């Protein structure tokens, strides 16, 4: 949930932000380690917390997870290498590789490091089994329904590429290659509500009963929402755990073995820990719209353009004046890209939507809240714009955990 900048109990307050602006010069990302640790603690009833690193894959963040005994989910060869570089051990269950395809290089890596594979396709099982009999595997099941805050984050149903539609077809392949089935995994999308959650729990139980295979774990996937707006209801973690624990107990009773309950959060652990700090370089009126243009674009924060996602925006005055929160104007906030869709205040589908914001001047700073997840990890070099720095607040200090990329860095890849 967006935290008011005048809340001094939070590290992401106006004093800290002004200090960071002076020290590092915007634009840059900031993460607060204390918030991440607090979110981890909320999930401690689950047997295994496996961080979905695609949400925030900086190796310094991954090392924080490792130090708290959090395991890791990787969805690419690059993420496997990040996890290994951060101290997660091969030949264990600390890393699980989740995907729907296995290219040759990735296949060789998971075999060499004995990394369990969460298979979303039958072909993956065959390719793995041929060169690594006995390999540990999970089955990612598509329960034939899905849910998400956007159509693009719905990972279940017939329009989703993810998971096994007929998981029973995987069993002969597993037996043929003597693969070791560890567990079943189910993830239907991001932003799950309780009615859908109950349905997923029932579906997981149904598939365990139908397949009737000896397993040791079930994974509830991720998708835990966070409140991006002040009036959004935070998820009830106790209720969430209770529903899954009921399902786990039914499964344990059926299999006559205590089953481990895994959760795979990404956004829930890191989104609220992060802000994006930008600077205003131009303002202009276009018909009925008042535009404010900042030095970050969808090459930095993709979510508003890609999903129509909402991020609360706060203003820090560049001239030390007091911002009058009551005197507002309808404002469209946009970036510097040569692209009409480079707008932070829009609905899904690209409809421009103004937002009531205080009067903004050139030289002011706009703070985008709750950007710790799917912010920097979705950044690109579009328009040949370098990646911006990442700053971590930890132990009353700020440290650069990713330096500012230079144009020379980009061009060197092409020389």
From TrEMBL:
- What pathway, per the record? Amino-acid biosynthesis; L-lysine biosynthesis via DAP pathway; L-lysine from DL-2,6-diaminopimelate: step 1/1
Q: Which residues form the active site?
A: 338
Name the positions where substrate binds.
Answer: 267, 303, 307, 339, 374
Superkingdom of this entry's organism?
Answer: Bacteria
Q: Which CDD domains match?
A: PLPDE_III_DapDC
GO terms (molecular function) for this protein are:
diaminopimelate decarboxylase activity; pyridoxal phosphate binding
User: Where does the Orn/DAP/Arg decarboxylase 2 C-terminal domain lie?
Assistant: 28-372
Q: Which UniProt keywords apply?
A: Amino-acid biosynthesis, Decarboxylase, Lyase, Lysine biosynthesis, Pyridoxal phosphate
Q: Which amino acid positions bind pyridoxal 5'-phosphate, per UniProt?
A: 223, 264-267, 374
Which GO BP terms sit in this record? lysine biosynthetic process via diaminopimelate
Pfam families associated with the record:
Orn_Arg_deC_N, Orn_DAP_Arg_deC
The keyword Lyase is annotated on this UniProt entry: yes
Write down the chemical reaction(s) this protein catalyses: meso-2,6-diaminopimelate + H(+) = L-lysine + CO2
EC number(s): the record gives: 4.1.1.20
N6-(pyridoxal phosphate)lysine: which positions carry it?
54
**Residue stretches in coiled coil:** none
Report the residue ranges that make up the Orn/DAP/Arg decarboxylase 2 N-terminal domain in this protein.
43-271
Q: Which cofactor does it need?
A: pyridoxal 5'-phosphate
Extract the InterPro entries matched here.
Ala_racemase/Decarboxylase_C, DAP_deCOOHase_LysA, De-COase2_C, De-COase2_N, Orn/DAP/Arg_de-COase, PLP-binding_barrel
Name the NCBIfam families for this protein: lysA
Family indicated by similarity: Belongs to the Orn/Lys/Arg decarboxylase class-II family. LysA subfamily.
Note the subunit structure.
Homodimer.
Query: What role does this protein play?
Result: Specifically catalyzes the decarboxylation of meso-diaminopimelate (meso-DAP) to L-lysine.
**Protein name from the UniProt record:** Diaminopimelate decarboxylase
Q: What species is this protein from?
A: Buchnera aphidicola (Microlophium carnosum)
């Amino acid at each position: 949930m967006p935290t008011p900048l005048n809340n001094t109990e939070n590290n992401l307050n106006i004093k800290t932000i002004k200090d960071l602006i002076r020290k590092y010069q915007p634009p840059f990302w900031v993460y607060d380690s204390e918030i991440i640790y607090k979110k981890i603690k909320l999930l401690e009833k689950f047997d295994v917390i496996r961080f979905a690193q695609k949400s925030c894959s900086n190796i310094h963040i991954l090392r924080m997870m490792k130090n708290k005994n959090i395991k890791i989910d990787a969805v690419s060869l690059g993420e496997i290498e990040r996890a290994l570089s951060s101290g997660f051990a091969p030949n264990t269950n600390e890393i699980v590789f989740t995907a729907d395809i296995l290219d040759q290089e990735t296949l060789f890596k998971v075999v060499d490091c004995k990394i369990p594979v969460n298979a979303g396709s039958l072909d993956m099982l065959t390719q793995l089994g041929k060169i690594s009999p006995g390999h540990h595997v999970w089955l990612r099941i598509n329960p034939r329904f899905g849910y998400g805050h956007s159509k693009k984050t719905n990972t279940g149903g017939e329009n989703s590429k993810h998971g096994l539609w007929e998981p029973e077809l995987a069993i002969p392949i597993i037996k043929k290659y003597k693969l070791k089935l560890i567990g079943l995994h189910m993830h239907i999308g991001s932003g799950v509500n309780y009615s859908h959650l109950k349905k997923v729990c029932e579906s997981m139980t149904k598939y365990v009963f139908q397949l009737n295979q000896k397993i040791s774990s079930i994974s509830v996937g991720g998708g835990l929402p966070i409140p991006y707006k002040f009036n959004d209801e935070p998820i009830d973690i106790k209720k969430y755990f209770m529903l899954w624990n009921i399902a786990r107990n039914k499964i344990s009773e059926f299999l006559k073995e205590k089953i481990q309950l895994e959760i795979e959060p990404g956004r829930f652990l890191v989104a609220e820990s992060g802000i994006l700090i930008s600077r205003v370089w131009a303002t202009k009126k276009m018909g009925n719209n008042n535009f404010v243009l900042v030095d970050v674009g969808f090459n930095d924060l993709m979510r508003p353009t890609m999903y129509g996602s909402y991020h609360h925006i706060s203003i820090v005055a560049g001239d030390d004046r007091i911002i009058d929160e009551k005197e507002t104007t309808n404002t469209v906030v946009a970036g510097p890209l040569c692209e009409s869709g480079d707008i932070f205040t829009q609905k899904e589908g690209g409809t421009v939507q103004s937002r009531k914001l205080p009067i903004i001047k050139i030289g002011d700073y706009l703070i985008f809240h709750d950007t710790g997840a799917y912010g920097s990890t979705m950044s690109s070099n579009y328009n040949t714009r370098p990646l911006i720095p990442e700053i971590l607040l930890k132990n009353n200090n700020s440290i650069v955990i990713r330096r500012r990329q230079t144009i020379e860095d980009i061009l060197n890849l092409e020389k």
